[in-house]
Specification:
The protein is an alpha/beta fold. It has 5 helices and 9 strands, in the order E-E-H-E-E-H-E-H-E-H-E-E-H-E.
Amino acid sequence: MANKSPIEWTNATWNPTTGCTKISAGCANCYAERLSNRLYHMGTEKYRNNFKLTLHPDALEIPLKWKEPKKIFVNSMSDLFHKDIPFSFTKKIFDVMEKASWHNFQVLTKRPEIMLEFTKQYYPNPLPNVWLGTTVESSPWKYRIDVLRKVPAVVRFLSLEPLIGPLGKLNLKGIHWVIVGGESGYRRRPIEQEWVREIRDQCIEKKVPFFFKQWGGVVAKSGGRRLDRRHWNQYPVDN
């Protein structure tokens, strides 16, 4: 059975690594860190190291066992392009994604420079079922979009979550999908409707599919996910 995900824009999660380290403002209230800590205190073996970066070779072949096609979020509890994950292990993960060609894999990083280095070395001709994206939580991190644009990928996407500030004008050239969401938890930072509308309107203008995930709240779904009286559930390819 697939590890079904509550994340609205994917079907399942696959975590061949867990744990990470904070790198930018969006990491301050990391949901993965909170969840790892909970699983650690529950005695879950996979999280025996809590949020310390950990490789899980035993999890590599999991997607091959899922026969129904799915959208799979890779490393929802980590960052595949963390500086301490050797490229030799990342290559094994990509080998599995290539074998499991009936799935679409969604890989998201806050470290697009390392993603670029890896893909240029190993995948100058991108895998057709692997979507590669980066997170931009506020204006100082918009440079990540320019790095992502250089990454060889059939689908490049942005996760503007948690959106903690206005982003202004976005260069969406070469970007195939945009996700936006607010922060959740007791320490959540507010999101403004104007920020979201500004991004949505730019996506409409540039014909880039737009997905609004949530407003956020004490818990992830407490604020709902309607924007201007509708749900925005667009994808870069047929859903």
